């Protein structure tokens, strides 16, 4: 028996007898029952080798209160649907399901509200990356990451054992070759590294910033630039929590004059050329956006507003506004509102300067930068593997609805060219190091997807 549909019954629990009676089972449908835990008795503690071929497991619309660590005992699992249940946590052991491609946790009230937003809008890869970084995904709990580290050795042993038992070594070698590649260029190898100085003025406004340089991005073909901008927007909406947790800014490196100063200035002093607008004082820009927001509300007859207008409340009560200033005194970034048109990315851009700022924590900046770089590597690989006509137009201000759902297993294999990520130092006003990105502890959240050459 390869498929079993038990949906719509009143099952309250499952026993190991099912797994033993159907060892060839590939699809198990359990939606619409009264189950409280999964896998639960289906895979009892200490049991191994049960359901080695199960690739699709659906248990939506039950009363599930726990998805336990036993889920890692399903080595072939590709699709998992546990939507509309009562789950509050997602176990980190889920990342050990190496073949997992689709997960659905919608309709569960998770303790980690950022994770809850991600399961409603992000791709499976992004959710698994977040779990790997955060541990069990139950909110704060820094110690959860220790559990992940301890399990890494065990996971590698399991992987080697699975290869030996199943004879899939050749396929794994192919998957290894097909991983996304990133090469880190260290400060010592860079003849002219970019440096960011942080002014004491930002301490009470938006104190945390992480930066790096990425080279080798191909934005010329087809909709490559649109996909990149759309991916950035999606990160802002999801993991950045509509820019309340952090804000991403991306620039054309060739248009930046370093060193840079991260500062906070009075709204009447700060001047910027916003994307698609003329130079304006920050005070006047905020006022313009407020008026536009009011007009939007009147025309659409609703409270929800779109565009930059929805971020204005993040500046409420601020006497000074954060900004990133180049060596010529020009403001190139005004987080969380806008970048400067002066450093706007175009199709011809291949070298990018990335910044992530936050008023919450430095770790959030690092986590989001990790996700951004992973997404860039994914998009760049997609562009290389899907030949599109090279467009000469640089007018890419209109962002499409979202990036494609990339699946490396469905693409044609080409030479895997790594993105180059250059380390950038952030120092205080006296030159003392505050943060270096990427460090040895960065870009480690997705080892199953990414190979980092350090």
How does this model look, in words?
This protein has helices at residues 16-21, 113-119, 124-134, 144-166, 169-177, 224-237, 282-300, 362-385; strands spanning 3-5, 27-29, 37-38, 56-58, 66-67, 79-81, 102-104, 180-185, 195-198, 208-215, 247-252, 260-265, 271-272, 280-281, 321-325, 331-334, 338-339, 351-358, 419-428, 433-437, 450-453. With 454 residues, it is an alpha/beta fold. The chain has 2 domains: 3-136, Alpha-Beta Horseshoe (Leucine-rich repeat, LRR (right-handed beta-alpha superhelix)), CATH 3.80.10; 179-384 and 416-452, 3-Layer(bba) Sandwich (Phenylalanyl-tRNA Synthetase, Chain B, domain 3). Strands 8, 9, 10, 11, 12, 15, 16, 17, 18, 19, 20 and 21 form a 12-stranded mixed sheet that branches. A 5-stranded parallel sheet has the order 1-2-4-6-7, with no helix packed on it. Strands 3-5 form a two-stranded parallel ribbon. Helix 6 (224-237) runs antiparallel to helix 8 (362-385). Mean pLDDT is 82; it is low at 136-152, 166-174 and 395-414.
Topology pattern, helix = H, strand = E: EHEEEEEEHHHHEEEHEEEEHEEEEHEEE
How much helix, percentage-wise, in residues? 10-25%
Q: Can you tell me the CATH topology of the largest domain?
A: Phenylalanyl-tRNA Synthetase, Chain B, domain 3
Mean pLDDT: 82
Structural features:
twelve-stranded mixed beta sheet, 8 helices, 2 domains, 20% strand, alpha/beta, Phenylalanyl-tRNA Synthetase, Chain B, domain 3, Leucine-rich repeat, LRR (right-handed beta-alpha superhelix), 454 residues
């Amino acid at each position: 028996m390869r498929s079993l549909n038990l949906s719509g019954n009143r099952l309250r629990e499952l026993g190991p007898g099912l797994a033993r009676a159907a060892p060839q089972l590939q699809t198990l449908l359990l939606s619409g029952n009264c189950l409280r835990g999964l896998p639960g008795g289906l895979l009892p503690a200490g049991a191994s080798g049960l359901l080695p071929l199960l690739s699709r497991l659906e248990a939506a619309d039950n009363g599930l209160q726990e998805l336990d660590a036993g889920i890692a005992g399903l080595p072939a699992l590709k699709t998992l649907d546990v939507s509309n249940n009562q789950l509050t946590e997602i176990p980190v052991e889920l990342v050990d399901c190496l073949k997992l491609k689709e997960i659905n946790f919608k309709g569960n009230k998770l303790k980690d509200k950022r994770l809850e937003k991600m399961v409603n809008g992000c791709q499976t890869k992004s959710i698994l990356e977040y779990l790997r970084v955060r541990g069990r995904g139950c909110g704060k709990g820094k110690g959860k990451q220790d559990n992940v580290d301890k399990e890494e050795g065990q996971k590698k042993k399991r992987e080697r054992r699975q290869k030996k038992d199943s004879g899939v070594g050749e396929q794994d070698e192919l998957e290894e070759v097909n991983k996304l590649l990133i090469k880190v260029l260290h400060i010592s190898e860079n003849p002219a590294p970019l440096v960011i100085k942080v002014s004491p003025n930002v301490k009470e406004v938006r104190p945390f910033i992480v930066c790096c340089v990425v080279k080798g991005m191909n934005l010329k073909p087809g909709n490559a630039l649109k996909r990149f901008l759309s991916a950035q927007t999606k990160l802002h909406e999801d993991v950045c929590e509509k820019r309340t947790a952090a804000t991403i800014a991306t620039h054309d490196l060739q248009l930046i004059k370093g060193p840079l100063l991260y500062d906070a200035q009075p709204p009447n002093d700060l001047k910027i050329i916003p994307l698609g607008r003329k130079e304006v004082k920050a005070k006047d820009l905020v006022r313009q956006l407020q008026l536009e927001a009011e007009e939007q509300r009147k025309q659409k007859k609703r409270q929800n507003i779109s565009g930059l207008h929805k971020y204005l409340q993040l500046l409420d009560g601020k006497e000074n506004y954060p900004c990133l200033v180049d060596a010529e005194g020009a403001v190139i970034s005004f987080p969380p509102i806008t970048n400067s048109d002066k450093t706007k990315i175009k199709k011809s851009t291949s070298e990018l300067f990335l910044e992530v700022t936050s008023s919450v924590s430095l770790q959030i900046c690092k986590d989001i930068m990790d996700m951004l770089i992973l997404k860039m590597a994914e998009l760049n690989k997609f562009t290389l593997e899907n030949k599109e006509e090279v467009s000469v137009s640089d007018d890419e201000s209109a962002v499409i609805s979202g990036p494609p759902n990339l699946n490396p297993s469905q693409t044609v294999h080409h030479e895997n060219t790594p993105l180059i990520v250059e380390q950038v130092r952030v120092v205080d006003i006296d030159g003392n190091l505050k943060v270096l990105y990427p460090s040895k502890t960065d870009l480690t959240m997705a080892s199953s997807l990414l190979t980092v050459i350090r």
